[in-house]
Each structure stands twice: as C-alpha cells, then as structure tokens.
C-alpha cells in the first residue's frame, strides 16, 4: 500500500467517524421521539406513537416558548438585515478616510465571543432597567449580530456594478431609491444568507435569553428545553426528543426555502453591457 492510498484511507476513516458522531444522535432523536418510554439508548421501537408530540404541542407553555423564540429570531433577522444593508452601503460605495480601520474593527468584532461581554451587558441592563424584556433582548441580539452581517453584506454589495446605480441616478433616482430598487433586488442571495444565518443563530441561542430574561413565560424554546431535565437526574427522553424534532423544523424549513435564492449567484455581465 503506497503513501497516497494510506492517506486516502485515513481521510475516509476520519470522515466516517465524524459522520457517525453526527448521525447517531440524530437517529436517537428520531427514534426516541416516537417512543412513549424512550431511554438514553438507541433502539428501534416495535410500537410507534405520536403521544410525545401531542404532549408537546398541546402544552400552552411550549406553545408560548416557540412563539417567543420565533418572535426573537424573526425580529432580530429583520433588524439585522435592514441595518446591515444601510451600514454596508457607504462602506461599499464611498471612499471613506477610515474605512480600512473600521473594517478591521468589524472583522475583530465577529470573532469576539458573546460570553466575554455578558457580565458588563447584564450589569448595564440592570442599571437601566432593561432586563426581563423580549424587546431589549432582541435589540442586544441584533447589535451582537451586526458585525458579521455588515461584513457579509458589504462583500455582496461590492459585486453589484456601480453602473446600474449611475443609470438610475441619471433618471433622477435618489440614493435611497437606487438602494431599494436597484441594489437590493440584486442582493437577494446576500440578504437571504444574512437572514438565514441570523435566524439560525438567534433560534439556537441559549445563553443570552437565559441571562437577560427571568420570567418563565417570556423564555424562548431554546431555554425551556431544559424543562425536561427534572430533579434527581430524571429526564423525559421521549418528550425531549419530540421537542427537539419540533425545534429543528423552523431552521430546516428556512434553509430549504433560502437555498433556492442563495444558489442563484450573481450574473451581472449582461446587465452592465450596453
């Protein structure tokens, strides 16, 4: 066996092990969600039941938790897309004096872990009485997601030819009109990319809502999932798996919906000619 064959086999073994590490928990979640008396072991039940899903969907607390999570995620996605688009426009179109240092600050901010700033953020929220509020939690989540969104939006906006905007300006369009009517429609892949990543990050965010929200009725689904871990180590594995299945549906649907737009790419060559 030569060196290239050994490297190829080793790479495949590593990929298979990584695949197993992802597939086994997924299979456990699927099988356990249909088992009334599910355990931590992975096993295929002889009798399949929807009782776990019925218990989750008919519980008003779970309905409220999913609604809170959707409200936080959609609200943050809309705010981040709009603000990042407006912030990325001058960075993409104008020659600003401190644009390069500012972009470096944005790049550094994307790598800053949110856990590193949560203690001063929590003290600030307590000082100005903004704790236990879905709205202010959404605002903080939006602010924390802006550096990455601005960076992505600027790169997409750089690909939109300036000649298209200049043609609109010649026809009397304002800067805001050209941004809304010319640039934004051509940036749909970028808008969907930022929106999907923002939604997925907010939907799965446990730490920030757990710190900033205290009232159980205001907690999103990413936090209330811990209700299935009872005292003395008892866990409702069946309901936990069913809750997890339902919890993944919005993110999966959004990826399926947005994939069609993201795969289009940019093809502006014909638009700039003539």
UniProtKB/TrEMBL annotation:
<dbReference type="GO" id="GO:0055085">
    <property type="term" value="P:transmembrane transport"/>
</dbReference>
<feature type="transmembrane region" description="Helical">
    <location>
        <begin position="9"/>
        <end position="31"/>
    </location>
</feature>
<keyword id="KW-1133">Transmembrane helix</keyword>
<feature type="transmembrane region" description="Helical">
    <location>
        <begin position="65"/>
        <end position="89"/>
    </location>
</feature>
<keyword id="KW-0472">Membrane</keyword>
<feature type="transmembrane region" description="Helical">
    <location>
        <begin position="101"/>
        <end position="122"/>
    </location>
</feature>
<keyword id="KW-0812">Transmembrane</keyword>
<dbReference type="Pfam" id="PF00528">
    <property type="entry name" value="BPD_transp_1"/>
</dbReference>
<feature type="transmembrane region" description="Helical">
    <location>
        <begin position="237"/>
        <end position="257"/>
    </location>
</feature>
<keyword id="KW-0813">Transport</keyword>
<feature type="domain" description="ABC transmembrane type-1">
    <location>
        <begin position="66"/>
        <end position="258"/>
    </location>
</feature>
<dbReference type="InterPro" id="IPR050901">
    <property type="entry name" value="BP-dep_ABC_trans_perm"/>
</dbReference>
<comment type="similarity">
    <text>Belongs to the binding-protein-dependent transport system permease family.</text>
</comment>
<feature type="transmembrane region" description="Helical">
    <location>
        <begin position="134"/>
        <end position="153"/>
    </location>
</feature>
<feature type="transmembrane region" description="Helical">
    <location>
        <begin position="186"/>
        <end position="213"/>
    </location>
</feature>
<dbReference type="InterPro" id="IPR000515">
    <property type="entry name" value="MetI-like"/>
</dbReference>
<keyword id="KW-1003">Cell membrane</keyword>
<dbReference type="GO" id="GO:0005886">
    <property type="term" value="C:plasma membrane"/>
</dbReference>
<dbReference type="InterPro" id="IPR035906">
    <property type="entry name" value="MetI-like_sf"/>
</dbReference>
<protein>
    <submittedName>
        <fullName>Carbohydrate ABC transporter permease</fullName>
    </submittedName>
</protein>
